[in-house]
């Protein structure tokens, strides 16, 4: 559906030195997939996504979308190819002097549809995004979420099969973000729309993406399906993003700042446990007590369901000496629960465990 091969985008800085906004990126997105690209500011996400519809011409590399070699297309062919690729943005980019209806009409102005067909099409799109009643409103009269819905309707006017979303929920509050993500998921399922989502929030990725690529300094440093990336992130940056998406950072803050922790750590072991999959709904904490007489205090626990697969994290204190720790670790290993020892950690903002 979308195949990017060895894409470079090189700009010149003010000293005429080359800046690799995108550096040798290859990725492919299958039809009907929701593909997330996550990275901090300046990582090259927007530049990369603009390469897909050739708003940004790559300095090097091949871009294939819907079977078209985008770089090789003539002007007219490119215009047609772009109609099949919708795009939405963080700040909606609506035309303030036009109504909701007028904004959605705009991309249809050069089509062969009759006036009536255009009306029907727009009404259908507005109904789809839940804005039928607002058709005569101006953008200034709408909330952020409603504006993004108009932008989505407009992006879908030419029946694209790909939708590019550049930080589409970054200007929205969490509840509105949820509703827009839900709408995108619906579009994906009902229209079999392939969606590429750029974000700096792993929460967004976790919510609806099938696959994710993590970008840093213009490069994709890790990519894969959501379950394997969330359950077994390899790169430090990916781990960092995932920790930020859960509440574990705050949990560590309160645990490490708790006055009684130092006392407890004299004769107890602080561990982080992680498990993936359904087979862990066994009462392993009580088994640990029954088999080894090891007592466990749970300081934090979190269970995420990612694509129907439970991913659990616990921070626990275990009673006992080093022998009991060895027993506990072998017990956890046997049950495919990964263990990180945290006792030696000092309280820092960055927990690189
Ligand atoms: N037209 C341009 N000319 C020169 N440098 C550019 C241009 N566009 C982007 N860059 C540089 O390329 C790098 C990547 O920018 P890009 O906007 O793609 O990052 P991003 O990941 O989308 O960041 P953000 O999350 O802030 O939107 C940055 O260092 C940026 O300054
Ligand atoms: Mg950007």
Itemize the secondary structure elements and their pairings:
Blueprint (H helix, E strand, L loop, with lengths): L1 E11 L5 E12 L4 E5 L6 H8 L7 E6 L2 E2 L5 H9 L1 E5 L10 H6 L9 H14 L15 H12 L6 E5 L7 H18 L2 E6 L2 H7 L2 E6 L2 E7 H6 L4 H10 L2 H10 L3 H4 L3 E9 L7 H9 L3 E11 L2 E11 L2 H13 L3 E4 L12
Parallel strand pairs: 3-8, 3-9, 6-7, 7-8
Antiparallel strand pairs: 1-2, 1-4, 4-5, 9-10, 11-13, 11-14, 12-13
- CATH homologous superfamily identity of the largest domain: P-loop containing nucleotide triphosphate hydrolases
- Please give the CATH architecture of the largest domain: 3-Layer(aba) Sandwich
Which whole number gives the mean pLDDT?
A: 91
The percent range for helix content is 25-40%
What ligands does this structure carry? adenosine-5'-triphosphate, magnesium ion
Largest sheet: 6 strands, mixed
Kindly identify the CATH topology of the largest domain. Rossmann fold
List unreliable stretches of 5+ residues: 345-353
| End-to-end distance | 38 Å
What Rg do the Cα atoms give? 25 Å
Number of helices: 13
Number of domains: 2
Say how many strands there are: 14
CATH class of the largest domain equals: Alpha Beta
Helical/strand content category: alpha/beta
Label the overall shape. elongated
> What is the strand arrangement across the widest sheet?
6-7-8-3-9-10
Commentary on this structure:
The protein has helices at residues 45-52, 75-83, 100-105, 115-128, 144-155, 174-191, 202-208, 226-231, 236-245, 248-257, 261-264, 284-292, 322-334, and strands at 2-12, 18-29, 34-38, 60-65, 68-69, 85-89, 162-166, 194-199, 211-216, 219-225, 268-276, 296-306, 309-319, 338-341. Residues 345-353 have low confidence and may be disordered. The protein has a six-stranded mixed sheet, with helices on both faces. Strands 2-1-4-5 form a four-stranded antiparallel sheet. Helix 4 (115-128) packs across helix 5 (144-155) and helix 5 (144-155) packs parallel to helix 6 (174-191). The protein is of the alpha/beta class and 353 residues long. It has 13 helices and 14 strands. The protein folds into two domains: 2-235, Rossmann fold (3-Layer(aba) Sandwich); 246-341, Alpha-Beta Plaits (2-Layer Sandwich), CATH 3.30.70. The two termini are 38 Å apart. Helices cover 36% and strands 28% of the residues. It binds adenosine-5'-triphosphate and magnesium ion (MG). Magnesium ion binds next to helix 1. GO terms for molecular function: ATP binding. InterPro entries: AAA+_ATPase, ABC_transporter-like_ATP-bd, ABC_transporter-like_CS, ACT-like_dom_sf, MetN_ABC, MetN_ABC_transporter-like, NIL_domain, P-loop_NTPase. It is a peripheral membrane protein. It is found in: Cell inner membrane. Keywords: Amino-acid transport, ATP-binding, Cell membrane, Membrane, Nucleotide-binding, Translocase, Transport.
